[in-house]
Amino acid sequence: MAMPELKNRPIHAIAQDLAAKSYTVGELVAEYINRIDQNDGVVKAFLKLDKERVMRNAEESDRRRATGNPLSFYDGIPIGVKDCIVTAGESCSCASKILEPVISPYDATVIAKLKSQGFIPFGRLNMDEFAMGSSCENSAFQKTTNPHDPQRVPGGSSGGSAACVGAGFAAGALGSDTGGSIRQPAAFCGIVGVKPTYGRVSRNGLVAFASSLDQIGPMTSDVEDAAILLDTIAGHDPLDSTSLPNQTTNFAEAVRNAPKSFKGVKIGLPKEYFTDGGLSSGVEKVLQRSIDKAKSLGAEIVEVSLPHTKYAVAVYYIIATAEASANLARFDGIRYGKRVNGKDLVDTYFQSRGEGFGDEVKRRILLGTYVLSSGYYDAYYLRAQKVRTLIRRDFEEAFKQCDVLLTPVTPTVAFKFGEKSDPLQMYLSDIFTIALNLSGNCGISIPAGIDSKSKMPVGLQLLAPAMAETKLLSFAQTLQQ
Ligand code: GLN
């Protein structure tokens, strides 16, 4: 068999091709590199790709397969990696000048898990600097473009990962989601993205942005692939004290056996998401078609309320910036990364951080330091934590009335470069994704259709209770089929 079109070719199909010896891992990886050489000059998803290393990994995989000892059914399949998840021997800049010189001495737990199944960690993918942003425009190095329209952003902060999968540069990718950074770019690029339950996936080796919100998750061309990758990376990890014990994962199996109908399933529509968030008519139309489809598959649609939704953006930008200001304090020019020597130690800190961080990162550090400072702590940070509890309770109440929630991912389709130069406008575009990170539950963004005016993909979000990924993924599969 000749090499098939790799764009949108799912991991499970590639694994079958490889098992049938339709092509070798070496040929597969060479074809991805070929696609990147031809198209990444425009897409700009990759910050780095060590071609020799991945070809070497491919040869090793082919040798294992030839002797009948593949590490798994998926041995040899390349998975792109967001530049904030460390891979041993590779750079990890978080798209920031301050970490540009850093080479990681170790593998993140998720990378070690991928490797243990034979998956090939494939390059370093662009992002907003330290995952702060929604468009990849905050990368210190390059602007990734949307594979559906180079005038438009791929979303962010995992925009490089979404563009990589959307353009067919790798079979899947890993992203991280603190306030929507997997789901929003997945929606903008027409792919699937999962934000797992907080604690489902180890954060060991993920450069921290906001530690109580960050989760790593899969970005793939379909739901089954997302389940395959989540099976691979999920699980308790003694190296991350917030990772949850006693996890059983068999998501791929559940997806393959997904129900053909929604009989007996209650899908909740949070009314605030359809009225208060500035939903564009194009996105609403596509969503309405999906809701109708769910109904025709037998679902009972119920209206629910998440009354504290209107505070979610404000609460997030207090808690996330507070945590970020603490997490980013370690980048001081002494222990990691770029150093600019000043006249004394304090001056060296100032110069290194001043030159190393971009504007958005500095804005977040300033905001975070402010909300944590004495006198303002009670007024902002403490209050935000209390409202966070109310937001979590909103979800608990809503899930008493339905199995999953169906919502938009973003108010609009992918916007054009420069369109949201006002940071507040950019922050407000996170309205539908942020509450899930505050509540810690799990969610998925799947392609719902194409907006008739812009011809850009529209995503749909399903949200489920904590640890209910099996239900989340199998319902997503039912809807996707
Ligand atoms: N867009 C949000 C922010 O700028 C979310 C980012 C993320 O999830 N990493 O903070």
List descriptors.
481 residues; alpha/beta; eleven-stranded mixed beta sheet; binds glutamine
> CATH homologous superfamily of the largest domain - what is it?
Amidase signature (AS) domain
Work out the helicity level.
40-55%
Based on the coordinates given, report the CATH architecture of the largest domain: Alpha-Beta Complex
Largest sheet: 11 strands, mixed
How much strand content do the residues show?
5-15%
Classified by CATH, the class of the largest domain is Alpha Beta
Task: Flag low-confidence runs.
Answer: none
| Radius of gyration, CA atoms, in whole angstroms | 21 Å
The unique ligands bound to this protein are:
glutamine
Which fold does the CATH topology of the largest domain refer to? Amidase signature (AS) enzymes
Structural class of the helices, strands and pairings?
alpha/beta
**Would you tell me the overall average pLDDT?**
97
Cα separation of the termini = 27 Å
